[in-house]
Amino acid sequence: MARLRVRPPGETVLLTVVAVLLAAGGIFWAAASPGSAWCWAAATVVALAPAIWWAAADLRHRRWGADTLAVLALASTLAVGEFFAGAVIAAMVATGRVLESRAQRRAGRDLTALLERAPRTAHLRDGDDLREVPAGEVAAGDAVVVLPGEVVPVDGVLAAAGLFDESALTGEPLPVNRPAGDTVHSGVVNAGAAVELTARATADESTYAGVVRLAESAAAQTAPVARLADQAAAWFLPAALVLAGAAWLLSGDVHRAVAVLVTATPCPLLLAVPIAVTAGMSRTARAGVVVKDGAALESLGRAKVLLMDKTGTITAGRPEVADVVCAPGWSAEDALRLAASVEYYSPHVLAAAVVRAAESAGIQRSRAEDVGELPGAGVSGRVGERIVRVGRLPTGRVVPAWACSAERRGRLDLASLLWVDCDGEPVAALLAKDRIRPDAARTMRRLRTAGIGTIRLLTGDRVDNAREVAALLGLDDVQAEVTPEDKLAAVGAAQASGLVVMTGDGVNDAPALAAADVGVALGSRGATAAAQAADAVILDDRLARLADAAEIARRSRRLAVQSAVVGVALSFAAMAAAAAGLLAPAAGALVQEAIDVAAILNALRALRVPAPGAPAPAGLVRRFESEHELLRPALLAIRQAADALSEGASPAADGAVRRARDALLGQVLPHEMAEETELYPALAGALGGPESTVPMSRAHTEIARLARRLERHLAEAPTGIQGDQVDDLRATLYGLDAVLTLHFAQEEEAYFTLPAS
Q1: pLDDT of 153-211, one tens digit each?
Q2: Cα distances (angstroms) measured from residue 370 to each of 364, 383, 386
Q3: pTM exceeding the 0.85 threshold for the entire prediction
Q4: What is the mean pLDDT of residues 731-752?
Q5: CATH number of 289-316+436-539, picked from 3.40.50.300, 3.40.50.1000, 3.30.2000.10, 3.20.20.300
Q6: Which helix (H) or strand (E) holds 190?
Q7: Strand ranges (DSSP E) for 439-565?
Q8: Of the candidates 505, 684, 587, 571, which has an alpha carbon nearest to the alpha carbon of residue 237?
Q9: 142 an active-site residue?
Q10: Which residue out of 165, 230, 309, 461 is catalytically annotated?
């Protein structure tokens, strides 16, 4: 396994010893004792030994940095007997190393979770029996049986159709039906009944083992990012040496050269930069993002390219039932009740979506019996006297006209269809979609403001779904149906344009996360393997944390550079004074100390990131956000009522319209009124004033107008809808559906993602 290891530092011990010796020297000096020089000299020697080790390590890698200049300053003070100056420099060097070690010590790209997920055993068919063997013993041509819920151990060809959860490899959240003769890859999960396959390769030669090797290789080859302090010291060191040499040659006084080196000690680099980086890491942790090392924070602060996974990162990673299309004579409530009754016993992700949809609509499940999985087809069971099946439409069945309309809507909405059969006849189609996260659009805008110039989408999902998401969020490019190898190659190609950030949440993202300059994993629902392979982990389920981290990283790096530049400029002024004989080495050390304090105080500003405005009231925002979820069935009822009028006036259509009216008056309008009187005034401070909510208030006015129009229609038809009302009623209901859908989306993006108190 590839892992970056850090040599255990003794920086804290070094700082303690140096501080004690410096203080002891001060006590002896106050008592006019010669012991002060010995204490300060000892402090200088104690710091010089490890500094030589650090500088030698830099030189072995053909670079020189702040450590090299520190060695020269410490050695020169010893050479000319300026022990107090040397002790002060030693204290600064030790303090800087402690701060820097905290910023750079990292958890490492630990790939144990990726390895632990690899299947260790397999079931081989032995006549009528199954024999469990280590996965490594499976050979090409063996008959392997994969039980429900097991990870497929080797690549193989299916003997019969099966249902598989391929999200670990592709990121696609919906189960995939594979027909007989199709190839399945190791690492996917059997989401249906037991299946048999013929092994095409050994476990070591199969797909999942390849993903592990990719991640290990990427983690091992990722080059360390040079320290900002070393980058500045690369030119500061030669300049200081030239100035010190010139002062010595022109004056003939070696003390001037030593004074130059003392004042040239890059303590603004050794202290201010690590302090700014450490402060930034502390700030990102409070914002819900754990950054594993200071180099990652520095890189995030100057990255220009962002590559993003789709499923579970930009989208919720959990499909939801977005619409229900029913056969004539059937209601959405009845269809959802039957579907949820049998799906309640199924483990796959779409079954959970059906159950959630019924629960949010307040629909009680019925008791289901004889429930079983139909391989490749879905779930069936008996509900009362009815045989209910939920899944795919059997091949060869004649599709009724209403079902053709449902299929078309599924294609237009880029949704997956789940059919509900009752006694052998289709009665409804459930449209399931993986919704974009509400904070995704705002996050993309904030990332661009923070300096990310290019945002690309990488996903194993279908091309049409990926393009739709990229278009909605205004992304620069999209690559769909990609493999882990493709993602790794995309990271390598993007690195030619600058530092690359990769964001993902699944096992299939681990190699790319390890290879990127900064890998960011969503840790709440993401795979542990992804979190371990990444440089930073978002602890909760909010994509907005990525923008928080980018903004904090950029500000921290700006303050680090600012502190270093100002500190070095002041150091140059002190060096010039020392070269002219205006500063003795001891005085130069004290001047350098003052410069350090100024640089440090400026760097500490990274701990505070000013909020753009007053925070939004968290409790109130969460309340209305949860109400949006509860109102989804009401919005669905409005759309279904409009659809029911497509066949003209009928008792069923009349009932659907009146149910929509009841949902509108009893649930939707009270919610909109509460937003107008409670939420919007409370958000005025966070949004910069009451005028910011005027467009949303105008939407409330339009929703209320259409609701009154709907009421007037029904008041004119107390016994049932008339034929001449149908066209205008449909326009009214579809208008309500469009306005409410847009209004909800705008609120979720604009208001529910605001920083909250």
Answers
A1: 998 999 888 888 877 666 666 677 788 888 888 888 888 788 899 998 888 877 777 66
A2: 19, 9, 11
A3: no
A4: 88
A5: 3.40.50.1000
A6: strand 189-190
A7: 454-458, 477-479, 500-504, 518-522, 536-538
A8: 571
A9: no
A10: 309
